[in-house]
């Protein structure tokens, strides 16, 4: 006689799995495709992160670098204070996508970090707990269309730098997003330089970039690694009309995808 088979609802299964340590989740990736894909959703990532906060399973990350055979290699050291309340090196995590420059770090958001290389459009969404990377597609930024009509197509894009950025969570659509600014340098036939700035927004859910109208403000050189609070991102701006060139605060709403000034 066969015993009756009892199956738990998937919602209950995910609730149980969200309370497990990362090592167990890594093993359970191989159980089925549904579990593997569910572990990558913003809802599960957020749920698992909050459960870790309750259990005080927190680590400290240090960004470091080393020289090996005359090559520059950045890496992170993950520190744990579980033994005698002293930080010890739990593991060293090398960054395979950033071999020659230390990336800028934005976050953390629900345990995730956004890594951005300023000189290129190279970026990554990183989960230090699982050591998994999600690589966004190449930048969607193109030459502003009005340049060709004004200058008769004489301007050539010679440089693009990706500086200021922010990484946050859009609770309205249950999606992680990255907003970043792109500084474009053009040169005309007379070797005169023209400068323009644009912004682009990345969606974790759709895995794509889209252009956002530039707010037209010059951001300061001050680096803010965690400038996104409750889905609103903030930057300091420069303005010659203000004392010490300190301008208003520029903000961006991840849900409405709009800039505003404070």
TrEMBL record:
Protein name as it appears in the record: F-box domain-containing protein
Pfam name, any one: FBA_1
PANTHER family: BNACNNG10540D PROTEIN, F-BOX PROTEIN CPR30-LIKE
InterPro entries (alphabetical): F-box-assoc_dom_typ1 (IPR006527), F-box-assoc_interact_dom (IPR017451), F-box-like_dom_sf (IPR036047), F-box_dom (IPR001810), SCF_F-box_component (IPR050796)
Naturally occurring in which organism (per UniProt): Gossypium anomalum
F-box associated beta-propeller type domain: residues covered: 96-260
UniProt xrefs under NCBIfam families: F_box_assoc_1 (TIGR01640)
SUPFAM superfamilies per the UniProt record, alphabetical: F-box domain
Domain annotation F-box: ranges: 8-45
């Amino acid at each position: 006689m066969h015993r009756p088979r009892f199956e738990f609802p998937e919602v209950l299964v995910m609730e149980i799995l969200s309370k497990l340590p990362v090592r167990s989740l890594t093993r359970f990736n191989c159980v089925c495709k549904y579990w593997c894909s569910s572990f990558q959703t913003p809802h599960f990532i957020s749920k698992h992160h909050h459960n870790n906060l309750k259990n005080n399973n927190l680590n400290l990350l240090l960004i470091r670098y080393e020289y090996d055979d005359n090559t520059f290699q950045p890496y992170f050291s993950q520190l744990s204070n579980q033994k005698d309340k002293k930080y010890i090196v739990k593991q060293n995590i090398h960054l395979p996508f950033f071999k020659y420059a230390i990336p800028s770090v934005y976050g953390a958001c629900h345990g995730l970090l956004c890594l951005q290389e300023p000189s290129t459009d190279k970026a990554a969404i990183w989960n230090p707990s699982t050591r998994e990377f999600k690589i966004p597609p190449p930048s969607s930024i193109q030459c502003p269309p009005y340049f060709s009509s004004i200058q008769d197509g004489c301007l050539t894009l010679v440089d693009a730098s990706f500086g200021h950025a922010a990484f946050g969570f859009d609770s309205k659509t249950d999606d992680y997003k990255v907003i970043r600014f792109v500084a474009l340098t053009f040169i005309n036939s007379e070797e005169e330089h023209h400068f323009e700035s644009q912004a682009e927004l990345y969606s974790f859910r759709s895995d794509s970039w889209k252009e956002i109208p530039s707010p037209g403000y010059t951001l300061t050189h001050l680096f803010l690694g965690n400038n996104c609070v409750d889905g609103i991102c903030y930057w300091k701006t420069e303005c010659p009309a203000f004392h010490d060139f300190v301008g208003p605060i520029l903000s961006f709403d991840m849900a409405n995808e709009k800039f505003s000034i404070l």
